[in-house]
Structures are given as structure tokens and as C-alpha cells.
Specification:
The radius of gyration is 41 Å and the shape is elongated. The protein is an alpha+beta fold and about 350 residues long. The protein has a 7-stranded mixed sheet, sandwiched between helices. It has a two-stranded antiparallel sheet with strand order 2-3. It has helices at about 1-15, 20-30, 35-45, 50-85, 105-120, 135, 145-150, 170-180, 220-235, 290-295, 310-320, 325-330, 330-335, and strands at about 125, 130, 165, 185-195, 205-215, 240-250, 250-260, 275-285, 300-310. It folds into 2 domains: about 1-85; about 105-335, 2-Layer Sandwich (BirA Bifunctional Protein, domain 2). It has 13 helices and 9 strands. The structure holds phenylalanine.
Amino acid sequence: MVEKIQQVEQDIAAAVVGSAAELEAFRIAYIGRKGKIAALFDDLKQVAPEQRRQVGQELNRLKNLAQEKFDQAQEQLANATAESADTGFDFTLPTVPNTLGTRHPLSLVRSEIIRIFERIGFNVSEGPEMEDDWHNFTALNFPENHPAREMQDTFFLSQDRDKLLRTHTSTVQVRLMEMQKPPLRSIMPGRVYRNEAISARAHMVFHQVEGLYVDKNVSFADLKQTLYYFAKEMFGPDTKVRFRPSFFPFTEPSAEIDITCLICKGEGCNICKGTGWVEIGGSGMVDPNVLENCSIDSETYSGFAFGMGIERITMLKYQIKDLRLFTENDVRFLRQFKGIL
Ligand code: PHE
């Protein structure tokens, strides 16, 4: 028995435990429940009673020896793997700077438009993007089968053409007048849809901001002054505004709104096609039929309305030449608007 113990002790001393596999083999061979030391403990029963105590002590010493060797080797191995996992990364490097995000230029301009109109008493109204024929056309005085309906390149959502994606924010005018009674002074920014081929100048999804003012004695002069004020606040004090006669079913009289070209300051360039003027939207006096459709007495009240393209205004303000940049999410483009609120 004593010889066996000595033999095992020598084996333990000689055992190589440099790798995880060798260590595991060592554990099974010596420490495990079916290992050599466990077997020796079993043999203890056969040892003469008077020697049992001493042999038992020897066995315990052997067991501790094996456990010690195992623990040491295991720790060494763990350190070695930690070192080899070192990829050369310098943990003392400063972290990536926490940079400020950028608001999308269309959001910036929409906020600015809202701020400008809020200063002269306009509040903000919103409406749904999925609309019905009444709010997009009929209430706005588009006669049935009138070519103006076709002009809008509508995306219809139902066979009977009653459900559609709104083609303009004028729908919100109708909703506001149906829900509230004058005086009304509101702007209505929002997304609109038209079935158009995507190009540098047109998109099937874009944004408008509508304005509506309904009260007693509202005149075309009020419309002009409001838009003069807006243009100067938005584009600078030298900006001039021009009204061109136009047609919309829901306004009478109607006018297209032009401002002096910001690129060439009215000299004429390729953005304004040499005219010195660029269009920013439509406007006019609310047609009495529209007021009546919304149960507003057109004998007592009058109003003006305007609608402008937010992409258009943004392109002019920041001299952006291609509308598609707004939806491409190219960070090189978006980062240029950093820090603007
Ligand atoms: N809704 C018109 C358009 O989308 C713009 C407009 C609004 C014109 C309000 C006059 C008054 O073209």
C-alpha cells in the first residue's frame, strides 16, 4: 500500500499539465471519483486496523498534493488564455466623442415656418394623410369630373375612388372649418402624396404647409401682408414677393406666390430659369362655396388661404439642387445642418 502511494506520488509529480486537455486528463486520473486516489481510499479497508490511521493520513496528504497541483495549473492556464486574448487594443484610448445629432433640414424649416407664423397669431393644426373625396376634393369646390381632379395625380386607396392619400394639405382647412368656428388662424404642415415620377424637382411624397385665416373683413391685402412678412422672415429682408393670377377651385381670386430668386438675387440664373423669380406656392381668398360647405356663413365671414411646398422652401433657403437628397439619408448631406435649431 505504502509503495502504491509512493508510486502515485511520483506519477503526480511527473504529470504534465500544460494544456486544458492535459489538465482534464490529470483530474480524471487522480482527483476524480474514479481516479487512482479514490481507488486507494477504497483499498484502505484492506489495510490492517493498526496501520489504517497512518496510511489514511498519507492518502490525505496525497489527495491534497494532487488538488494543489491541479489548482496551480488551472490558474496558470487561465492567465495564459487571458494574455493570448490580448488583441493589441489600447484600453487607455479615449472613447469615441459623443457627437451631437442633426435635425433633418425639412424638420428645421418646418419648425422655422411654424415659429414665424406663431409670432403673428397662427396656431398649428393637423389632419390625417389617408383622406376621403370630400375633404380632398368635393368640399374644396372641385366639381365632379373636373380636370383639376386629374391634375393632382391622386393615389386612390379604394375602387370607388373615395379613399385616397391626400394630394394637398388643403384637406386640413376643411377639417378645421368643420370643427371650429371663426375667427380661425392656423397653419397646417404635413405630408402629401402625388403619383409623379421621382426626379430632382419632383417626388411622390413631399410636404406642404397650408395657412388659413377666416374672420370678418379679411381681405386680399391681409393675405399679401402676411406673405410679405413670412418671406422676409424666412429668406431675409431684401426678399420681394410677387403674386401671379392663377386658378384653384377653392380660392377666388387665386394667385401663385413668387419670391425673388435667392441664388442670383433677381439677376436671372438657371435655378429661376433666367426670370429672377421662383415660385413657392399658391394662395387666394377662400371661395364662398368652401365656407358654405363647412357651414360657415360666407355673407358674414371671408378668409384667405395659402399653401407652400416645404421642400421647395428648404431648397431655396439652403440652395439644395436635388430634391432626392432629402430622402437618401446620406450623412454627408445631413451633417451640414448640424447645430441649426
Ligand atoms: N392646395 C394647393 C396645391 O396643393 C395650394 C393652395 C393652397 C392654393 C391654398 C391656394 C390656397 O397646389
